[in-house]
Amino acid sequence: MKVLGFNHLSVGAKDLEASMRFYKEVLGLEPIPTYNFGFKTRYLRCGDLQLHIFELQDHIPVYQHFAIDVDDFHTVYERAKALGALDSTAFRNCVNELPDGCVQMYLRDPAGNLIEVDWPDVNTLDRSKIPEMKLLSEFAAQDAEGFRASLYLDRPHMKPNRTGRGR
Prior knowledge:
This protein is of the alpha/beta class. 16% of the residues lie in helices and 27% in strands. The strands form two sheets. The chain has a five-stranded mixed sheet, with helices on one face. A hairpin with a 2-residue loop joins strand 3 and strand 4. The longest helix has 11 residues, at 73-83.
């Protein structure tokens, strides 16, 4: 037996409609048919997977998050910044360049859920449009394992140079 992959992720919402607007307007997720569980729930398409939003009284964790890939990092950044959704409380900075050249951006939805938006190659971004972007090594020294790490397992060709920046 082995796990085949993720099917969906669910997050809590304090206000289901506010959360739905956020995920549609900032990330472009599409509402899809949803089962009735007897409480407020909505499903959204996230690529080939699903995000389920539940309006419940659950406590929202500070560090737990889910990560997504997008096709336009700059647009998500601009929309999130305009809404004040960029978050630097959990991981010290809201946009980080990782040693292999990947980029992570952290957002909070209206319920306080943490979302990580990933981008595979910093060299395809306009750094001047993302003033918050900093090297992860400014916050945490990287050891040999950290320099070998990547969010993208299919990228063995991306090797960091000694400064911690990808090629």
